[in-house]
Amino acid sequence: MQVRLALPPGWICAQLDFREVGGHFETNALILDVTGRMHTWSPPPAVGERFSELREAMRRPSVWYRARFEVQYSGEEKFRSFGPDEPGMGHPSGTGGLSRRAAVQADHSTPCQIG
To answer: Is residue 55 classed as helix, strand or coil in its secondary structure?
Structure first.
């Protein structure tokens, strides 16, 4: 629910990537709007804090370092965690390295293809 409340007006689909190693985490997102355009979005810190709390609660018996959450305005949601490989952190582009091309290469799907 934290994500839905924080999303910008006009969104129809959002894909959030969360990465955490030690005490450092980053959250980046792609938003598909009602006009069909894709935008990068920086979620507020509270969204990353909720991901961190979820990660801590799921820590046993194993840990994940990266998660992807996709949500559509219609209510569909998809959550996937990745681990134990450490994620790339601190990309100089300011987007965390998240891009449409990276999303396609990572999952062979474009953002917001819930299925």
So the answer is: helix
The torsion defined by the Cα of 36, 38, 44 and 47, in degrees rounded to 10, comes to: 80
Contact 58, 81 (CB under 8 A): yes
SS3 state of residue 109: coil
How many residues are present in the chain?
Answer: 115
Q: Omega before 92 cis (within 30°)?
A: no
Using the 8-state DSSP alphabet, how is residue 9 labeled?
Answer: T
User: Any idea what DSSP says for residue 87?
Assistant: P
Q: What domains, with CATH codes, occur in the chain?
A: 2-107 (3.30.500.20)
- Average pLDDT value for residue range 2-21: 90
Instruction: List, for residues 60-108, the tens digit of each pLDDT value.
Output: 666 788 889 999 999 999 999 887 654 454 443 344 444 444 443 344 4
DSSP label at residue 78 = E
68 has which bridge partners?
17, 80
